[in-house]
Target: UDP-glucose 4-epimerase
Amino acid sequence: MAVGTVLITGGTGYIGSFTALALLDADYKVVIVDNLYNSSKVSLDRIEILCGKRPDFYEVDITDEAALDKVFAAHPDIDSVIHFAALKAVGESSEIPLEYYRVNVGGTISLLRSMTKHNVANIVFSSSATVYGDATRVPNMIPIPEHCPIGPTNPYGRTKSMIESIITDHVEAQRNNSKKEGKPFEKWNGALLRYFNPAGSHPSGIMGEDPLGVPFNLLPLLGQVATGQREKLLVFGDDYASRDGTAIRDYIHVVDLAKGHLAALNYLRNNHPGVRAWNLGSGRGCTVFEMINAFSKVVGHPLKFEVVGRRAGDVLDLTANPARANEELGWKTELTLEDACEDLWRWVSNNPKGYRQDPPEAFLKAAQEGKTLKASAA
Model:
């Protein structure tokens, strides 16, 4: 018997698919909506191979409220939503900001309206550390705690901050309205998960990030350099006030990140906190050069890079203070940066075409048996 039914928006994407897997492993029933703009339905096959269960899937755009209504109507047992669906590139958001506001903010409003119509009261929102902006502008805010003032420096971060406000206003209004009507108000809750830099792949080597077009994150770009799909990595600035001049980020293994969403969902269902923000990060900062060196070590040879000018909207240091999530959610990162590098290399070296190819037979067999092969296996 499922412990509950959860709708995941953007559930065939990188973090969404890993979260779907974590929920299915925890005996939730999962329904996914995704427009497949930057993801693949093949991720559903890999989820099924790894856990023996398959999410229900609907090809739906998050901005289409009528289509969302049909999904909720078809699954009246849905009691919670985990919301990933969004455009997510910092650089691109400065080039096409209206599209980011239309999809990210407009899509969330469509989702919340549809949820309310169907009496679905819990939402776990995939926010971002970009809502903090440049935390070095405020004394004693590195590593970054949840009470750090919000101040995003790019349109992507502003959409995330705006959505946090919309969810907060919505949940508080629903609670107040329910109180006035003498109805149970505690069921309306929201989790704002501000996470840092997702990294890595599934240890099985058959599930990972498969960006369509140019990746926007450092590790997938390094993966393309390592497999020869890209000549070199561009390092945006080496004149930051860090130990080697490059920007500092907090990398979190995607498997740990997925477990963080499960922990937040359980917290909402069990504790009814209203709206609460949690940082999901490791608390360990890593520079771009340190990440290049760590991944090069796993690959076995130096990876080519070129330093270019800073990128608009980038900041010096995004390192999490994860103490609140550690204490309240009983969650902390268990996997290391080295684990993330090894798992990513296992994925990209054996699946150079991502989900557009079948995984190596040996990896498939090992996954079905619950084993892990080394990255160099063919």
Summary: The mean pLDDT is 95. The radius of gyration is 20 Å. The longest helix spans residues 155-180.
